[in-house]
User: Fold these one by one.
Assistant:
Number 1:
Amino acid sequence: MRTRNRRQGVNDAETVRRQYGTADRLNTRISIHGKYSVNKQGFGNWIVSHYRFREGMTVLELGCGTGEMWLGQEELAGRCARLVLSDFSDGMLNTARENLRGLEGIEYRVIDIRDIPYGDRAFDAVIANMMLYHVPDLARGLREVRRVLKEDGAFYCATYGEHGMMAYIRGLFGMEARTDGPFTLQNGAEKLAPFFPEVERFLYEDALEVTDAEDMADYIQSLTGMAELRELPREEILSVLRRHMEGGVLRVPKEYGMFVARGAARGKDGTA
């Protein structure tokens, strides 16, 4: 059993490396949201609106990806006495560094959440958006986050739900929907609870209204974790998508949100 779990962890890590080794696939997935999302606030802007950064805070982001969510956030970044953006992928981190070259004072570092190279209680806030479901040993990763987070610090982690885009896409192609995601809006609080005494969940209302099936096919073929669909001929994917369009629009449900977990429970006045 132990050998199999170790091998599964290696395979999961290799999948993440393939999917996020460069920014190409991630940019494909980001672009469809920017082009077709009904909620024009944007998921990234909505996430950032929940950050509560005081002047002089120390902040670590794990899995920063392309760094896109920090674009236009000069004021927020400027509040940080120390801002470390990290990613599992060196290639992705290089893209973030290039995208944010106008922002000064950011530290960039390749980090695996399961082995964070900082001392205990080093950060006021830790961020891990849309990445915890990729961590092979999630409990170990969350234990590391809790270790480097100050007692009154906050952990911000966005994720998806079990009834959103992936479930819809799988249903289009006659595949059974999965309800056993490793970290979702449905089970995330349960995963966080052993490490954080206070966990809040926030939901983001949105959907896609896709008018070009080619864009949706690009999105599907960028999903390394859905090998069954990527192996289908592109014309077959497009045929299925077009059959489900109504009035030239494919309406795709989205279920996204985030958790804010705290190292210490707050009192009635909101203080830790």
Note: Confidence is low (pLDDT under 50) at residues 1-11, 15-21.
Number 2:
Amino acid sequence: MLSRSAENLFWLSRYMERAEATARLIEMGRRMAMLPSLGTQDDWLSVVRASGSAAFLPEGETANEASVIDLLLLREDNPSSIRSSLSRARANAKSVRTAMTRQMWETLNDGWRMLDGLDGAGAVRDLSAHLDWVATLTATFRGAAEASMLRDDRYDFLRLGGYVERADMTLRLLDVKYYVLLPETEVIGGGRDHHQWTSVLGALSGMRAFHHLYKGDFSPWKITDFVILNSAFPRSLAFSYQQIVEHLNNLAARYDAESPCARTAWDALMRISRIGAGEIFSTGLHEFVINAISVNNRLSEEIAETYHFQGH
């Protein structure tokens, strides 16, 4: 397979996953800000910081619902925005049109202009509908890929990109807690703390699964265990790295080559499997998250180097 095609598939999947994760971040900020007597501008600022978009917020501009929705939903110049992610996903898809199935292409091509002509006021007014549309589009695209792609190297590169991005965005969603609440150690366990932690679960569509495993214990330690360490939850860091390792092993076997990226992914998975939630909190949740994001970034760079991506 041509390295350029592999790169396009890898980044197509990353951008689709990013669009969905950014929608989840916006929804999380909205839930936190709507809580009576709990929402503050810090809630929205935390979403901007966690998305990695703080540099795109104009100096002196307040991080409120309208400004953050514009920044993360509509701004074309912000690579983390939903509009930018879907536009870049389609550009990558066009480059590998023959490597995709008809169902995948039609799903992406039919809906990508949905945000064209949408202004800030319309985005705020119909925010739930637009976020639901993003979730439906990305889920339909993944479903089309799962149902129609051959399980060959094209599939491995596509899914690999998706799980690298999912690991990154799951960590960023969790880090919203650091920016909003964790410095206020005296209120951990209080009402604000409880609502913020359950907002993390809601943003990851994990409320029901969490309750099935942990019942009514919504302690920070249990939620961190679920989001980072529980390999049965499909949006956890552990699950994402299990899938990353699997797809890298498939590619190594197909190309008969060992690579640093496979070792980096395996080492990260082993660390996740050996650490406990208590240890994460004792060393610092934010510090763990920042380190894990750094490892994930290095992994992405090593994948690009191993398979001769041109740069993205």
Note: The mean pLDDT is 87.
Number 3:
Amino acid sequence: MVMSTGQGHQHEHRARHKGSTGRSTHSHGHGHHHHDHSGTNRTRLAIAFGLTVTVLIVEVIMAIVTGSLALLVDAAHMLTDATGLAIALFAASLMARPPTSKRTWGFARMEVLAAGAQATILLGVGIFAFVEGIRRLISPPEVQGLGMLIIGIVGLLANVIALVVLAGGRDANLNMRAAFLEVVNDALGSVAVIVGAIIITLTGWTRADAIAGMLIAVLIAPRAVVILREASSVLMETVPDGIDLDEVRAHLMSKPHVREVHDLHLSRISTGLPVLTAHIVVEESCFTSGRTPRLLTRLQTCVAEHFDIPIEHSTFQIEPPNHRHHELNLHD
């Protein structure tokens, strides 16, 4: 029985202690990609967090002074964003820690948990904003349009700076994407505040404030749901989008000497870290002719290079045809 893995340092460490087990570990030496730019991402998040907290304090004060729902909702939104960015910053710090013998993947999954927490908070704020907006449409309070306009412009400028800072790291992982989305929603909220303030200042129609608040809510909810869906997909260990498991099985089966593939699993530890495990039944002659190591390399190269999403962390259990009846709870 031969085990193969694309994991780098952690599995290499374990391999040095398995010499007497009859298993050999084959490694391509791939590291965890989510560590590559962790320091830069933490700096980006820290800058965005500082800007968001500053604007939040100013918005709370001005929301009280002007009586604006749009400002109050945007301040609540900013509070959730500040919380979300703090969670993202904390998660990014944990993700930078190396794997240990207790946590063999390190804190890679923290990005998913952090993104899910951010999205949940965002969704709650969106629901509150919409309900409060309906109430204020029915009974509109006095709103000071000029104060709204000033703080809306200040908030938008801060959001634009934060977006520029975060833009370079938004594709790094789900955690950074959720943080970027937080600030995008802030910027859209600031635009809604500015538009509402201009309408109130020019026409005196105070219901524009409630509509602006509801518009912010409409912008928040769908994006929050998308992040939640992707986070839950990772946590439920579903097959990543863009990879067809039947195609993976067929491609493995197409390799010479492979007779059967079973117990095939494909999931993600984090958004950028797909992992695959499978039991590969091969011809008995592979074990006597010395072909198994070459076959192992072919299988691993197959999943790492053939598909649109490279699967660099793969583990294969190579089995003779008569081994299947020794296994419990087999599945395809």
Note: The chain is about 60% helix and 10% strand.
Number 4:
Amino acid sequence: MKDINKYRGVIPAFYACYDKTGAVSPQGAKALARHLIGKGVKGVYVGGSSGECIYQSVAERKAILEAVMEEAKGKITVIAHIACNNTADSAELAAHAEGCGVDAIAAIPPIYFHLPDYAIADYWNAMSAAAPHTEFVIYNIPQLAGTALTLPLLREMLKNLNVIAVKNSSMPVQDIQMFKDAGITARGEEGFAVFNGPDEQFVSGRMMGADGGIGGTYAVMPELFLKMNELVEQGQVAKARHVQYLADRIIYKMCEAHGNLYAVQKEILRRMYGLELGGVRPPLPNLIPADEAVVAAAQTMIQDAIGEIQAL
């Protein structure tokens, strides 16, 4: 029986880190890893959407993961997203991640071409075979990947004993219940995990059965998601819902900028903690001068919310 306890809790999606020239920054990645470890998160999810994986080379993704592992190995759970839009590069990243000692690898389905379930299963199983001693997380994000995880595909993947979890970023919380129930049926209560993906419904996802969450705004305000998780564990649903509303207002404010959401968050981290993580990689839009008001307002909202939740 596999132990899913290391996947229970708040796991920020790790941001892409760049230097002033736009090259990936291992130094920035180490600094962000140290920062998040200090905040008390359960783990980090490296190389996913927040890590701008589709705009980075295989070598760049390896460099960032290696930097994170230097700081995080043995201290927190590390899940490495290793999917590329071809099987060979994905398998190469899977083997590299296993060599680095990650807790799990993760993958979206192939994007662009709409493939049948058996082809997606072959793609995921090839990655898993390249990292045979490492657990595997299915990443379901149909609104971006163009392909949704189905129950028949999940049941097929559960034949692979390394498949330990689904990171579910579809919006219906019903999907969390369906995937969790399928995992329980195949593996028992303690043998399979589901992560809530949409940050705006962390509490809803946890109430529906998610064991934890992986999200792209956790890193800029981990205190709020840690408090939500704590309140859910305590059964204090009304208070957890209140903190969710605080976080959602901040997310909506950050999304008002011309620049990409991750550019806004990295600028807030620079201002609040001195973390130099760079901007975002084109074609993602970077901040423009008119975004100053949004960044400042969101930063104030985060600081005010952190102060407010201390009394809960």
Note: The CA atoms of residues 305 and 311 lie 10 Å apart.
